[in-house]
Amino acid sequence: MTTHTTRMLILGSGPAGLSAAIYGARAGMQPIVVQGIQPGGQLTTTTDVENYPGFADVIQGPWLMEQMQRQAEHVGARMMWDTITQVDLTNRPFRLIGDGGDVYEGEVLVIATGAQAKWLGLDSEEAMKGKGVSACATCDGFFYRGKKVAVIGGGNTAVEEALYLTNHSDDVTLIHRRDSLRAERILQERLFAHPNVKVLWNKEVREFVDGGGNAGLVALDLLDTVTGEHSRLDVEGGFVAIGHHPATELFRGHLELDSDGYIAVETGSTRTSVPGVFACGDVADKVYRQAVTAAGTGCMAALDAERFLAAAEFEELAKAAE
Ligand SMILES: Cc1cc2nc3c(=O)[nH]c(=O)nc-3n(C[C@H](O)[C@H](O)[C@H](O)COP(=O)(O)OP(=O)(O)OC[C@H]3O[C@@H](n4cnc5c(N)ncnc54)[C@H](O)[C@@H]3O)c2cc1C
Predict the structure, then answer these.
(1) Which residue out of 113, 138, 287, 292 has the highest number of ligand 1 atoms within 8 Å of its CB and is therefore the one to mutate?
(2) Do 25 and 110 fall into the same domain?
(3) Which residues form the signal peptide (predicted)?
């Protein structure tokens, strides 16, 4: 059991955590990044990334994250392959414990633990991820230009994803297992008014159908939740939009979370309800959820943390001099 101490402790090694590490290291904060079970974060689970600025050609998600990690290490951040299981945010330095018992102490804490998309849990869904099945229309919609696509879900996200996909496809189907949507009325009105969107009510996806070879997704097998009838919808893209799980269980009772479980931050900043603790990336963002926004708020968190610590240290020095 070892104790690791740092001025800036960062939890999470996705674009938010690594961007915070780059800025923190360059501000002389000697950050430690606890990487968690998914070093590099969500982008390591995808292939083509076409919307991260700075690259004229398509890049690969795992490659981008490897570059970010190397850049953070190059400027002095230390990576720890551990997962935090306990936190104590009552006093500074904040004290976190890893699953092997190691202790991490940070004068400031940056939380960048991300959010994971919820999935339907079908074997065929797992097998077809990246081959026609996605949980992010903003990320992948562009790859389905001119193709038939479907969105599965009934809340705001599903309706927003369906409307977003009409930028690329003139044949978008929203599939919902009930006979009414949970989405806000104004979104529903826009959806129902759109000529390129149709809604299939009372339908559950039973299988994402693989066309074999390199075909990828070719159809969805559907079950009518009222009549029990099976039907098939030909599509090349299936977007699962049934919500996200922010990785905030650890912080329940320690930090203020919003009604959906995301870390609450002050508008326009990364400050949380505990002074000295900052949150960035998808763990505090249920609106944009993109690599570039995660990186942007990661930068903000490092700057907010550096300013907080400089002010706190100045105050402590002034008190000591009294
Ligand atoms: C398949 C897929 C494709 C995508 N494609 C694109 C795209 O093309 N363009 C785009 O901009 N965005 C894309 N996204 C979204 C993008 O990946 C996310 O918005 C982004 O990764 C969020 O970054 P983050 O740093 O906030 O969190 P994440 O990337 O989710 O990283 C979270 C980190 O926290 C760590 N962690 C969690 N819990 C703990 C713990 N207890 N202790 C220590 N560490 C912990 C994890 O190990 C991980 O390193 C895609 C997402 C997916 C799933």
Answers:
(1) 113
(2) yes
(3) none
The pLDDT confidence band at residue 247, using thresholds 50, 70 and 90, is very high
Does residue 140 have an active-site annotation? Answer: yes
For the chain, how many structural domains are there in total? 2
Last residue of a domain, one of 241, 263, 281: 241
If you measure from the C-alpha of residue 288 to the centroid of ligand 1, how many angstroms do you get, rounded to a whole number? 12
Domain limits for position 172: 120-241
Residue that is last in its domain, among 241, 271, 294: 241
Is 136 one of the annotated active-site residues of the chain? yes
Any ligand 1 atom below 6 A from CB of 36: yes
What rounded mean pLDDT belongs to the chain?
96
- Which DSSP helix (H) or strand (E) runs through 168? none
Check 82, 136, 280, 304 and give the catalytic one. 136
- 229 Cβ partners below 8 Å, 6+ apart? 223
Task: State pLDDT tens for residues 76-122.
Answer: 999 999 999 999 999 999 999 999 999 999 999 999 999 999 999 99
The partner residues of 221 in beta bridges, in order of sequence, read 207, 232
Q: Are 265 and 272 in contact (CB under 8 A)?
A: yes
Q: Is 280 a catalytic site residue?
A: no
pLDDT band at 23 (very low <50, low <70, confident <90, very high): very high
